[in-house]
Amino acid sequence: MMHRNLAGRDESAGPETAPETGPPAQIGLPLWSNRFSRRQLLLGAGGLFALTAAGKWIWQSAEHFSQAAVVVARAESYSPHLVEDLRHGLEELGLSRAAINGKSVLLKPNLVEPTIAAPHVNTHPAFVRAVVETFRRWDAKEVIVGEGQGHCRDTSFVLEQSGLERVLDDDRIPFVDLNYDDLFAADNRSGFTKLAKLQLPQSLRRADFIVSLPKMKTHHWAGVTLSMKNLFGVMPGVYYGWPKNVLHHAGIGQSILDICGTVRPHLAIVDGIIGMEGDGPIMGTAKHSRLIVMGTNLPAVDATCARLMGFDPNCIDYLRNASGVLGPIQERHIEQRGESIASSSQFFKLPDHPHFKQFRAA
Amino acid sequence: MNDSWITEVHQELLRLRERGPGWGNRPGGTRYVEPTALSALALSASTPAADVERSRHAVDEAADWLARLQQADGGLGLAPDIPRPRWTTPLAILVWLGTGRCAESNRKAVDWLLAQEGTTWSPTPDSPYGHDTRLRGWAWVDNTHSWLEPTALAVLALKCAGKGSAARTRDGLSLIRDRAIRTGGWNYGNSAVFGADLRPQPAPTGLALLALVGAEDVDSPLVKLGCDYLEAILPGTHAAQSLCFGTLALAAWQRRPGEADQWLIAARQSAARRSNAVSQLAYLLLAAGSRALELLGTKS
């Protein structure tokens, strides 16, 4: 079933083009395969069978030739042992002090809205603290936490209600409000939406190493919200609104891909110790799944999480479209380290409403 | 009220001003319309024990700077180099009305605001949304849906400008009523989705209640439930924006708690530490100001 989004139009309708406020900028990792986006391939084919076949071959080859490693780790609770668990996991990925030493690290947790009563809505403060500590032990020049939450303009209230404010104060962790940062215009490197430029916070450009720290949750529009969807929270509310309605106009799935393809974070660490099932991302119920998932390729991380949650990544639009463009999502192209999916997978329930059937394989 | 505290925040806000008129979201950053308008309103809302002339001069300069940023059709963008979106325009109107300056700019901005509206559509039987998508309020960004805060800000500015009975103002009030959460209060503008009542938040609740002054009775369930929510949530928060709109709304509805001043004073220390200290301090100063409700057009 296709619902109209909150823009009142179908998701193919494009918003106005963002004006430039500065020179295009390079941020994050290089986009390893941005020559052949799905849109470009489809346009290029132009109805010619031969070109379509060629495009299909290239498309499949992009996924076929890509490989990524993802670590799945078990964690019973948000205990101080998390720092060691994280370090082991990151070392499994080949990361070490040498990769972080002297770098400015920006952590982007998921603090979508303020609530004390439902702590499973947001990335747990102890999880953020443990990641900060891990990078500090590896002699990062600085570790900054940044968020541009979509459902509440009062960032102090979100920090307070999420419990993160106390952690930031106690551990003297700098925080940047990405909704109100100074802006710069970046070229949209993926082109899934019609947005020519993305307005982004300057803090992204200043960071040497960007880490997405999402919560493992279901999502009533996107199916699942993980490290890629979490990047909606780098988009400044002052420019895109609360919620980020311009991105709804442009298409939620398409916007996820464009943001991910433009920001290109270096790492994702998913807080699945207590996740959310049901009517996510804010009204679902807590799911004590005891998992941490991490990797340097976000589609591979999210596809793995989707499998762990009982979803076929091919049924999640934005993951299917990320395949071959931003990274691999097929199990055979993801090198699984740590716990196996078979031994760790759990079934995240969805609401009993016809809309949600699209996210599960028949 | 501890007047020395108010004077100190006045001076702090003046220190945080960028060279020339206007304020940024953080010291040394770009000057933006929103923190400039908030600071001007905050400084106008009370009289400090010192630096009165300096404060007044800063407010006048801010009002004039906002007028220089006004675009030909009357709207204002985010900053000199960021002409869209233009949801900040109601804030400039409130500054111009509060200072009595820039009458022509104000007239153009009001006309522009009256002509704006968010997108609408007819709901389908299986619509997941709890609100009436046909109602016409104001959007954050052109050609997107209407949301609670830009609508409440527009209603406040229009009422302040003497347009309280305009059709567009009545449209905005209808939307605000419709977006109330069944259990009390408001959030960014989704009351329910897929049958689940969403959670209220204090700042949008405060703004909505301020916009409804004169349009609802004190006994109205919307007002009563909204104020009840604020009375329950505000004692536990130091968040400046929430305290500002929350305490002002309770004051407007004759329910300002006796402890409200203490909440504002307690919030000051954490506000000054934040990277967005300008807006944080401005919200607290506005909330403490004896002229605040008058500046927002909600003085009964």
Percent of residues in helices of chain A comes to 25-40%
Q: Given the helix and strand composition of chain A, which structural class is it?
A: alpha/beta
The overall strand count of chain A is 13
- Compute the average pLDDT of chain A: 88
Number of helices of chain B: 13
Q: Gap between N and C termini of chain B, in Å? A: 21 Å
Considering residues with a beta carbon less than 8 A from a beta carbon on another chain, report the largest interface and each chain's count.
A-B, 51 and 56 residues
Could you give a short account of the major beta sheet of chain B? 2 strands, antiparallel
Verbal overview:
The complex is a heterodimer of chains A (about 350) and B (about 300). By secondary structure, chain A is an alpha/beta fold. Chain A is built from 14 helices and 13 strands. In chain A, a hairpin with a 3-residue loop joins strand 8 and strand 9. The two termini of chain A are about 15 Å apart. Chain B is an all-alpha fold. Chain B contains 13 helices and four strands. A two-stranded antiparallel ribbon of chain B has the order 1-2. A two-stranded antiparallel ribbon of chain B has the order 3-4.
